Hints:
The structure is a single chain. This protein has helices at 13-23, 45-57, 68-77, 90-94, 98-107, 131-146, 149-157, 173-185, 205-209; strands spanning 3-6, 31-34, 62-64, 111-114, 119-122, 189-190, 196-197, 214-215, 224-225, 228-229, 231-234, 249-251, 261-266, 272-276. It is an alpha/beta fold and 290 residues long. It has a single domain, classed as Purple Acid Phosphatase, chain A, domain 2, CATH 3.60.21.10. α6 (131-146) packs across α8 (173-185). The longest helix has 16 residues, at 131-146.
Amino acid sequence: MATYCIGDIHGCFVEFLQLLEKMQFNPDKDKLLLTGDLIGRGPYPLETMNYIMHLNLCEKCLHAVLGNHDLNFIAVYYGLGKLRPNYNLDRLLAAPNVDKIIKFLCSLPLLYINKEQKAAICHAGIYPSWGLHEASLRSQEISEVLNNPVKRQILLRNMYANTPKRYDPKDSDLLRWRFIINAFTRMRLCDKNLNLDYNHSSLSPQEALNLAIFPWFNYGHPSRFDGEQYELIFGHWSALQGKCYRPHIIALDTGCVWGKSLSGYCLETGEHFQVESKQKPTDKKKNTKN
């Protein structure tokens, strides 16, 4: 039995299947963990979602977390988000099983923790002042909101904003929910006071140094849970190209949807896997932020 983690798929279904084949993934005995952004921009969102749901609901061998593009699709479905043509969501919206897809996405957490293997997976990262225990509580908070019809509408209607920039447990429910989602699904850089920076998402960590802003994983020990060391796997930041150079923190988004590659990682062996993208190479800086 092996546990494989895969970075942001973004509807790149062909590359997803190729990576599973390269890893020799066997749904009868192996487990699969996905870093979110299952859909968005890529060519085969419906095929991707149907296969992921099959592995989760039928084979029971898959766990995934929500990314910002997955949350955006939920908001679009409810008429509370903007349908952007380049996000390639039309086939999903027209799918006969779209209601089941939405139900499945709303069931996904922002953070998945496997205590047996001492591993955790999320989309963008763990806010530095939390650690995994606090992050788990915050993930549960948003899961409860997404599965409450009234609170879900309030959240989705007010989800798109860059404030607050720093976590304060005394904030109102709405402000707290928004921050939690931003931290889990949009975070890249923070200043020394742990204010999230949303204005320089295209910068590399080296370029950000000149502005005194730093990658979230430069602060604290976000991969510790109840005093024990965990492996923390995240996606979202394709500019890293899988290189964050921090012990026990693994970056897996290598920009498949931008024409680069789709990456995977085996928890048991530490082996990395990669397949080349079939998408047209794109300069991400010229496109809308993800």
